[in-house]
Amino acid sequence: MTSLLRWRIKKLARKSMALGSSATGCVAAAGLLHGPVVRVLTYHRFGRVAHDPFCINPDDFEKQMGYLADRRLAVSLDEFEEFLSGKAKLRPGVALVTIDDGFRSLYTTAFPILRYYAIPAVAFVTTGLIRAGNTQSAIATKPEEYLTWDELTILLESGVAIGSHGWTHRSLGRMSDPEIEEQAVLSFKMLEQRLGFPTVAFAYPFGTRADFNDRTAAILRRTGYCCAFTSQHGPTRAGMEPFWLPRIKVEGGEALWLFRLLLRGGMDNWSWIDRALWRWQAGEQ
Description:
This protein is of the alpha/beta class. The protein has helices at about 5-25, 25-35, 60-70, 75-85, 105-115, 150-155, 175-195, 215-225, 255-265, 270-280, and strands at about 40-45, 45, 55, 95-100, 120-125, 160-165, 200-205, 225-235, 245-250. The model has no long low-confidence stretch (mean pLDDT about 90).
């Protein structure tokens, strides 16, 4: 749980960036200067937990999905891949909804909303933690139970794409090559075995600049994945490196107006903070 002071500082920073981008015209100009983009939205959990940026209130999530549905702004993973490869053009302002980790509130809370509004989404699951049945997860430090394989199958059959979030939710960038390959291959094979087809997309656990690199990209590509997403902020453009893709985090406790600005590029410049944090973590400041 985030401390109240840290929560307030983070919220102020995000609001200031979004409003500042809008006021200076950066949001409106971004598409004109750089061409069509897709913003890949990152969610994690859903519930009524106060002061937790990783947990989205169901009422807020419904408003966000309704906004996407009313304006036909949500695209599927297949459409995103066609755009990334330069094979298809998409309408301005579109977004891809992704949900990390594989916690059960994806199924119990988010899924009914996604289904009601016909929003395509991608669930990136930590494959080694998915439950075989109704047994409880053994990891006491986690905020929720994980999904079961039966629930994942229902999600898949209802149009939610399933991607890999690694085997044990550990940083690939901090591993040796054999360890990276083990994480990638075990997850890839298990998803194919249990769901009946190979997954194409991967999301790096944590996704900071320390968690992916040229080695991780090469091994994921060799394993059979087609693309991989980070947690680094920014829009996706056609022709980008497919194994270093940016996303935009959607946080709990934020109003719909901020979500609207986020879709228009209001949080794109948070990438500067991502890079500053990386330099600080690497001791380069």
